[in-house]
Each structure stands twice: as C-alpha cells, then as structure tokens.
Amino acid sequence: MTVAQIHQRPFGELLRGWREHRRLSQLDLSNRVEISTRHISFLETGRATPSRDMVLHLSEHLDLPLRERNHLLLAAGYAPVYAESPLDSPGMAAVCEAIRRLLSAHDPYPAVVVDRAWELVDANEGIALLAEGVDPDLLGNVLRASLHPEGLAPHILNLGEWRAHLLGRLRRQITHTADPRLTELYAELRGYPCDQPEPEVELPGPGDIMVPLRVRRAGRELSFFSIVATFGTPLDITVSELAIESFYPADDATAAFLRDTSS
C-alpha cells in the first residue's frame, strides 16, 4: 500500500476495518483499550480525532504489525514511528552479522531467511540440497520454489501434507497482517497442481510429533523438520518481518547422509 492510498482511507475507516478483521465489537475494543464505546464509535465515524498516543494504544491492543501501525498513524495525520531500514544500512550490521552466524553454524543442514512476503533474503550453503533442480526464476520466493511444479514439489514425497502445512501458515499470516500481497500469493499457490490429498486438519499418525518435509534427493528419501525463529524485540519494520527457518534431520538416515556429504 502506498502513502497516497493510505491517505485516501480515513483513520476511522482503517480502525473499523482492523477491529472487524480482529472480530471485535466496539465493546470488546473499548474494554481492551479502557475507553468508552462512545469514543470508539466517534473515532470510527470521524467525529473525534485521536491523539498520537491513542493511535499507538489502539494499535497495540489490536496487535497490529509495525508496518500497519505506521499506516494508522499516517491516516490520523501523524508521522510514522517505526523505521524500515535496508539490510545493508550501517544500523543493521549487527542484525546481518547475527543472521550470518546462525546460517553458517547451521551448515550442512539447510536454512533460509525470508521477509514478510516469503521473498528469499539469505540462505546457507546447505540449502543447495533442496534448491537443486529448482527453476532459478522461482528461487526468489521460498513458497513458490517449494510448491511450483517446476520447483521442489515433484521431489516432495508427502506433497499434499507439506503443501497443506505451508498454505495453513500463509493463511494464518494473512489473518494477522491482512496483507493483500499475501492474499494474492495464497491464491496463486492454491492454483498449483497437486496429485495428493491435502488434509484440512493436521492430525498425527502413530508416533508422529510434527509434520516432516520428506524429499527424494540423491536417490534416497530424506526427512526434515523445521524451526522458525524471529527477532524477539523488533522496533524496525524490516527486522520485525524477517523469519529464519532452519531445517533439521528428522531421522538418523538423513543426519548420516548430511554428515557424509559434508565431510
């Protein structure tokens, strides 16, 4: 959303939209923010003008991402509070160093860093195992690279299960951010072919504790689980939207294969 588009939507309209998106009544929100429902109503209809502190207070209790908090501030006539720093700026040096340390330490196991739109920001050498044979044009977006028929999808043995898992994660992200770009990406991914059943609900089989990624590589089946890490106390939009996904062997055979190929 551009700044011009933000200013075309009044503050009250944005506030009402987020309240309804969070499935809150005016009473629910007033109880959270500790102001009257009358004042919430006046803010949404434009009969009252919020202070800067009130905008931030409402954003906090609506659990808005930092990017959307800036949008709400702009719509109310205030300057954005949260910076969006390029990763190559001097102030981001410590962040980039921490990311590189994590990625390097994770080799030979695969790991990637993505932004809010699942665009690839960085990866370690171990990711080459999963990226082999993937159309280079798809590598810029991790979800496209994973689920596109010219990506990793033909090599995923439990494609239906893994696809349902990834789409579920994206769907929950859309619920949190209301980002139209992610909605478009979801629709695109849903259109990719899949010849396996996709479970609507992830249920464990005997002995299962998580959904693995099972892929065929080098003539053998490899199995991984992943851990997703984010920065714990971000005050910058770029930092808040970064996610590091690290893949670990889900069985002894996969661990042994990775050790052997890296030695």
Give a description of the structure.
This protein has helices at residues 3-8, 11-21, 26-33, 37-45, 52-61, 66-75, 93-106, 128-131, 142-147, 159-177, 180-190, 237-240, 252-262, and strands at 111-114, 120-123, 213-217, 220-229, 243-249. It is elongated. Helix 5 (52-61) packs antiparallel against helix 6 (66-75). It is α+β, with helices and mostly antiparallel strands. It has a 5-stranded antiparallel beta sheet with strand order 2-1-5-4-3. It is built from 13 helices and 5 strands. InterPro entries: Cro/C1-type_HTH (IPR001387), Lambda_DNA-bd_dom_sf (IPR010982), MLTR_LBD (IPR041413). Residues 15-69 form the HTH cro/C1-type domain. It comes from Microbispora amethystogenes. This is Transcriptional regulator. Pfam families: HTH_31, MLTR_LBD.
Q: Give the N-terminus to C-terminus distance in angstroms.
A: 48 Å
Strand order across the largest sheet:
2-1-5-4-3
Structural class, from secondary structure content? alpha+beta
- Largest beta-sheet characterization: 5 strands, antiparallel
N-to-C order of helices and strands: HHHHHHHEEHHHHEEHEH
**Number of DSSP strand runs:** 5
Helix content bin: 40-55%
Question: Cα-atom Rg, whole angstroms?
Answer: 22 Å
Shape, please? Answer: elongated
Strand content: 5-15%
- pLDDT averaged over residues: 93
Given as residue ranges, the uncertain stretches (5+ residues, pLDDT < 50) are: 1-7
Number of helices: 13
InterPro entries: Cro/C1-type_HTH (IPR001387), Lambda_DNA-bd_dom_sf (IPR010982), MLTR_LBD (IPR041413)
Protein name: Transcriptional regulator
Organism: Microbispora amethystogenes
